[in-house]
Amino acid sequence: MVRVIAPSSPFDPDGLARGLAVLRERLGLVPRHRADLDARDRYLAGSDARRLEEWREAVADPDARAIFCARGGFGASRLLPGLDPAPLVERPKVLVGFSDVCALHAALNRAGLATVHGPVLTQLGRAPEAAVAHLERLLSRSAPRPGPWEAPAEGAGLAGTATVRPGRASGPLLGGSLALLAHLCGTPWAPRLDGAILLLEDVTEAPYRLDRTLTQLRLSEALDRLAGVALGQFTHCDDAGVRGLDVVRELVRELGVPAIEGVPAGHEDANFAVPLGARATLVAPGEGASDEGPPRLVFDGWMEGA
C-alpha cells in the first residue's frame, strides 16, 4: 500500500485517475488517500493545515511503503516549518515526486533520508512504458549493476546525451528544480551541496531567469564545492532565439567540475526517476578523461541501500 498526498497545488482529477490506474494496474500498488485530497484554496490544494495534516498522516501510516504526490505547482515550501523528518528516519518511506515537491526532498535529504525525484501522479498517467519500468526497478532496487563502460540498466542509473565538462565524480545526488533551489537559498532547508552531484532541471523559465537563478546560487557560494553537475530537461525554457539549456550549460561549464547534459529527468512526459540523497557516480567521458561509453549517472549508493 502507498499513500497519495497533494502538498502543493490542486490537480486535474482525470490526470490523477490515470496516474492512480498506473499505480494499481501496472505497478501493483494499492493507493490510499484522504477524502479531501481534491480540496482547493486558491492556488493551493487546501489550507496549509490540511496539507500538513495529510503529510503527517501519510508518514504515520504503518502500512504505507511509499508516499506519492499528486501534483507539483506551489505550496510545499509553506509546509517546511511544520515538517519533522524524525518519524521517517525511524521508519523510512520513499517520497516520490518532483518540481515543487523538491522542497520536501530538500528537507528530507538534509536529514539523511533518500527520496525519489520522479513523476507525480498527474504526470505518471502520461509516462511512456520505459519511464514506468525504470521507476518500478528503482523502487524495488532490483536493477542489475552496469558494467564499467555501459549505459546503466533500468533503475540503475541514467544516460545523458553529451558531456559538458569531462571527468568523474561521486557524491550524494541532490537538487531538482533550479528555481526551487534558488528559492531555498538563505533558509534552513537549503541543500548542503559540498561534495554533491547536483541535478538541475526546470520548466517555463526564460533564459534570463535561468541565468538569474544560477547566478544567485553562485553568489550565495552554494556551488563553490560541488563534485559534479547533471543537467536534466529544461522544458519550454527558450525565448527570442535563445535556448535555456545553452545558458545553463555555459554557466555550469564555468564551475569547473565534471558535468553532463541530457539526463531524461524533469517536466517532459518521459521523466525518469532519480534517487536524491543517495550516493551516485557521474561519468563524463571526453578529452583528458579515462572513462569511455556514454555520459551517465549511476545510482551506486541506492543499489547498495546507502
Architecture blueprint of SSEs:
Elements: E1 2-5, H1 13-26, E2 31-32, H2 48-60, E3 66-69, H3 86-90, E4 94-97, H4 102-110, E5 115-117, H5 121-124, H6 129-140, E6 157-159, E7 162-165, E8 167-177, H7 178-183, E9 197-203, H8 207-219, E10 228-235, H9 244-253, E11 259-261, E12 274-276, E13 279-284, E14 296-298, H10 300-303
Parallel strand pairs: 1-2, 1-3, 3-4, 4-5, 8-9, 9-10, 10-11
Antiparallel strand pairs: 5-12, 6-14, 7-11, 8-13, 13-14
Helix pairs in contact: 8-9
The tally of structural domains comes to: 2
Biggest sheet features:
8 strands, mixed
The CATH homologous superfamily of the largest domain is termed LD-carboxypeptidase A C-terminal domain-like
How many β-strand stretches?
14
What fraction of the residues are assigned to beta strands by DSSP? 15-25%
Mean pLDDT figure: 96
CATH class call of the largest domain: Alpha Beta
Query: What distance separates the N and C termini?
Result: 23 Å
Helix segment tally: 10
- Indicate the CATH architecture of the largest domain: 3-Layer(bba) Sandwich
**Helix share of residues?**
25-40%
Spell out the helices and strands N to C.
EHEHEHEHEHHEEEHEHEHEEEEH
Shape: globular
Question: What Rg is obtained from the alpha carbons, in whole angstroms?
Answer: 18 Å
CATH topology group of the largest domain = Glucose Oxidase, domain 1
Model regions low in confidence, pLDDT < 50 over at least 5 residues:
none
Task: Give, in spatial order, the strands making up the sheet with the most strands.
Answer: 6-14-13-8-9-10-11-7
Structural class: alpha/beta
